[in-house]
Amino acid sequence: LDLSNCSLHNVPPGLAEATTAIVVDLTENPLTTLPSGSFLGFVQLQRLAVPLALECPGGNDSWQDVTVDRSSRLCQGQRNPCNSSVGLAWPCPENSVCAPDGPGLTQCLCDDPFHGYRCLREGTFPMLLFGGILGTATVSLSLLLWGTQRRKAKTS
């Protein structure tokens, strides 16, 4: 994805849709910052070229090789922050595993059959119970409103 020399002052919002990009070039743009979530979901990104004034997203420890030339910084080989030897691995709650979610970013995915907040609920989501209660409440409320509002419609 070549976005070099596009006069970008900010990261374009459409960049979030290019999560399958392997190479991104942002050089020769007057960018001043890269917001922390700019590359959220970019797990396949292997080469990122940014203006010299900017750091690699996630810091230099998130990349295997960072090279600097006279006008740009090249970040190559995204590292997996979940099994990083630099610093501590990301702490995920019990019943979950760490998964990379972009340069220097992680997410915790629940092990099967756990789900919910901090992966504390076991089993599957009770769809039948949820749908039954929601359907019953909707039909009951609809009948109640129909019955009460029908009298007002006849008098008008």
From TrEMBL:
Stored SUPFAM superfamilies: L domain-like
Domain EGF-like, chain residue ranges per copy: 78-120
Entry keywords, A to Z: Disulfide bond, EGF-like domain, Membrane, Transmembrane, Transmembrane helix
One BP annotation, GO: positive regulation of osteoblast differentiation
Highest taxon listed in the record's lineage: Eukaryota
Disulfide bonds: C110-C119
Protein name listed in UniProt: ARAID factor
Residues spanning the membrane: 125-146
Keyword Cell cycle attached: no
InterPro entries in the cross-refs: ATRAID (IPR042350), EGF (IPR000742), LRR_dom_sf (IPR032675)
